[in-house]
Amino acid sequence: MPKSERPQSRRAALLEFAVLGLLHDGPLHGYELRKRLTTALGIFRALSYGSLYPALRHLVDSGWIHETTEAATGSSKRPRITYELTADGKEHFQDLVAASGPDAWDDEDFDVRFAFFSRTEAQVRLRILEGRRSRLEERLANIRDASQARRERMDSYTLALQQHGEERAEREVRWLEELIVAERRAALDPGPAAYDDHTTDISTPQSTTTNNKE
Description:
Blueprint: H1 10-23, E1 28-29, H2 30-40, H3 49-61, E2 65-70, E3 80-85, H4 87-98, H5 107-115, H6 122-150, H7 156-188
Antiparallel strand pairs: 1-3, 2-3
Helix pairs in contact: 1-3, 6-7
């Protein structure tokens, strides 16, 4: 089956990547898929079926997922459609997780990529983490420069917001540094996961993205 063109929207492409990643664990029907996207991946918390189903249709048309229609049961009058990753879809997903360009360490892209780090090669994980750290260090420097230049003209609320942004960026930089150290340690001493160290918390810090509406 010929593959259809990839979506032009980065957000649409990111949604399709997330769908492929979730289906990698096993088949899901549309309701459960949307539930996992909205609860596990923060940037999709406002995801509507009007956005999800066109993405699923594109993946089906591309040959990356297969849909199976089940007869309606119980009080439901609608048949239930289950989606499953195809062999081509698994291969395509592996190609996607192997990519490590600058887009991978943008705010929304990084959060989704990090969610599937367990299926990402170590050297790719490290490259993305280092890229994300550099991006945050650059952002932190810009925040500090702006704060220094405009501090005298800021009211107390604007100043508090500026300080909050600086502290949040600092926390994420520290978190990224811990992850990078753990990845490098694991590369030198393979065995039990470096993240098993109880002194290191790898939970994603509060997202820097504030507008998550579809």
